[in-house]
Specification:
This protein is of the alpha/beta class. The protein has a six-stranded parallel β-sheet with strand order 1-2-8-11-12-13. It has a three-stranded antiparallel β-sheet with strand order 3-7-5. It has a two-stranded antiparallel ribbon with strand order 4-6. α2 runs parallel beside α6 and α7 packs across α8. The protein starts with a helix and ends with a strand. The N terminus is likely disordered.
Length: 370
Amino acid sequence: MTLRGLLFMVLCANICSAIQSDVVVKWNSVVRKSKTTPTLQVVVNPLLRRGSEIHDNVFRELKAINANQVRFQYWYPYPHLVVAELEAPQGNPRCAVATNDTWLRIYCGTTDGLIEDIQFASFGDPTGSCGNFQMGRCNSDQSLQVVKNMCLGKQSCSIPANIATFGKTCNTPDLRLAVQASCSNARNVTSWDFSYMDPLMEDFMDATGGRNMILDMSTIPAWMFNTKDPITYSSDPNAVNWGYQGPTLLRDPSMKELVTYFQRILSWYTKGGFYDEYGVYHHSGHNYKFSHWEVLNEVDLGFTGPFSVEYYTQIYDAIVLGLREIDPNMQYVGLALAGHYEWSWYTYFLNASNHAPGVPLGSFQLENST
């Protein structure tokens, strides 16, 4: 113990012994009404599925508790239960963007044939997005040929986005590689599937009545991240997949791919359905009302990242602005950090000047998981 700590204990003991006070509790009088809302969190897992031994008891007790602001979280270890689009859309073109010193992967599914063409490739500072990439002010002249050599005729290819592969282009801290390719047997099909997620949502909403609930679709599909190798998962929906987590950067730096994913989920549950990437309508019949949407979970750990506070703030802003197009009245919750001392996160995130114009800062969460 330090000298300061010892002196504090001695001082406190002397003061406390000199002060005598009786505490009188009057249970029949109201001093002040508490504004605290006692609540709980429900985390999706196989034991909440219909047919499990505890399913009926769990939702019966959840209904009996009659709590407000219950947090309902679709957490990542069970991909089938929490991700509505487990595979990337299978049509052409196939695009990806990777920042300097990371990997870019182009992949044709098992029934999509081989990579037959590279329409665009630029290592430098390309602009635009899939279907509309443009050369920036600097570009490696080798870009297209290097990517063709590494990818054509293969089902998938992983390209290191770095100077060693493409050569030095220009002095910019924002070097990146953008690629647009096509597969020989691509079909305009998607993997949207709510057959596992819907029963969980239906039972939760029935038990809580949707009273000021906080919905957290905390799992980003793994295919949205840049990875050297694909992130795999079990075909068993009840199997735990601790490895189903993305690295730090999305393959689409514009975040449009991520935002439209969550927009479609919100539309599925609140607007009766949505149009997918190829214009096919998916009907749900759901018209729930969500009061709060929490943007991801434990982003300071490896469960969805880990992200920096700056990158998470960009994601938060993009998702919030996108979801407000679907429901302008929904409120948002941010951060939900796993650690307890990341004060730099709070000071940065709660500074409105670090957010895009029009982004509301309604609530943030301090977790204390034990």
